[in-house]
Amino acid sequence: MAGKVYVGDWLAHHNKMIGEGQKFDRIITDIPSFLNRWPGALGLGTINDLVSATIVAAQQALNEDGTMTISCTGVAQERFDLWFENQSEWELVPNSTWAMFRPYIRTISPNKQFWGRRDDWTYVRSYRKVGSSYTINPAGWPGSDMHRNNFDNYPMPTSMNNVELSAFRAPYHKGEHDSKEKQKWLSKNGITYEQQDRDDGLQVVSALGAGACFVEGYIVQLSTDRNDWYHIPKRIGQHGDYFDDVIVGKFNDSSLPGTRVLSGGNHKHVMLSSWILHTHTNEGDHVLDPFCGFGSMGAACAVMKRDFTGVENNPTRAEIAQNAYDELTGIISSSTYD
Q: What's the CATH number where 202 sits?
């Protein structure tokens, strides 16, 4: 099992990887889609180039039965869709389109939900080469019986009618605490709450009155059928063969540089990456994430016996991602688990 995170812009590494003949089984990534939000996504032309480079990598660097699982919105999605509509070599994997929400709060008795969308990993599709028999396998996700953040016995809503969606991320990025949408939802539903002041001057909800609870985590919806909705805890709990005592017990230590991958950061967390790997990949696959951030996909690959290659423009995040992979690999290799 191997894992490497390259520092720098995806465009700078893309041609070199292809020229060296590197091959991958899966491309799994969220393509930067918001103009001028990151140093590596400055301007429409750059975002279009990032999309094009990802497409070319899929065409030239994937193995014969390789697939790409892509999340993108806005201008990146427009560019990607334009390519897809004007080619004939790739097709959408059946039943592979899914949406992701963040459940924040619920009222316990009527089971009303307050969910939000993030600006990454909200709308995902998988693509295969025409003639391939590849499909995703929702049954591959074993679930987690070690939930945190009040996910124990979490009742899914009976329909989206029980859910109120937050729009604080659209059309322009505005943080959840700045928008105060949680506070507005709680007040509207007559739920008392306490707040605390942060160092940046914002106020965050710190406690809820009776009849409500924080939820956190993710909801993945493979269809409108609620039986196709999966709730995934935010913090790592159960991860294939490796459990809380092995991963969190040894890795969740502030002295380790990769800890942020498990517990924070403005990116998807390891458990969501774990769900994607369980359902969209096979053990032994080589996964490429060209925009890997803090390395949650790499961390999940380390735990789940997938090779990993990542690219990250931010040097600090790239270092965290590499350290996380290396630390986890070391912990697992020295543990009593196979």
A: 3.40.50.150
